[in-house]
């Protein structure tokens, strides 16, 4: 059986409450000041382009699988407890998204840091504590996808050319 990983990853995200549109809203939130002509369709297109990358698909599958295993309490201790508490010293959830942030250069890291600090919109929702729900990896993945899309837009913007 051959999988369409792009569609599979979109389905995984939707199952976890994340849509392309909700990630595109993050792009608009962080880029509208710099690119006032930016539309939701532009942001959706940039998100879709990022989601087509195999590195991104691999991170989505890995991170969501670990979140689901934590919800099902299927991880070994002490890893299970670390995931349940979303221990701030764990940090692997941030490290795993570096492959996404690297896609469009170092600007991805600053875009990500901005979104990760503010946690607006869908990121705020993903960070809410709900019994039996684990989004340790998902919130960072979503932020990184949006940050990479912001970087893609910046790299392709005509006014930034010399």
Report how far the terminal alpha carbons are from each other.
Answer: 48 Å
Strand content: under 5%
Task: Summarize the amount of helix as a percent range.
Answer: 55-70%
Largest sheet: none
Concise overview:
The chain contains ten helices and no strands.
Element layout with pairings:
Blueprint: H1 5-15, H2 20-31, H3 40-51, H4 54-71, H5 79-85, H6 92-95, H7 98-101, H8 107-118, H9 122-127, H10 138-156
Helix pairs in contact: 1-4, 2-3, 2-10, 3-10, 8-10
Describe the structure.
The protein contains 10 helices and no strands. Helix content is 65%, strand content 0%. The N and C termini lie far apart (48 Å). By secondary structure, it is mainly α. The model has no long low-confidence stretch (mean pLDDT 94).
Properties at a glance:
162 residues, 65% helix, mainly alpha, 10 helices
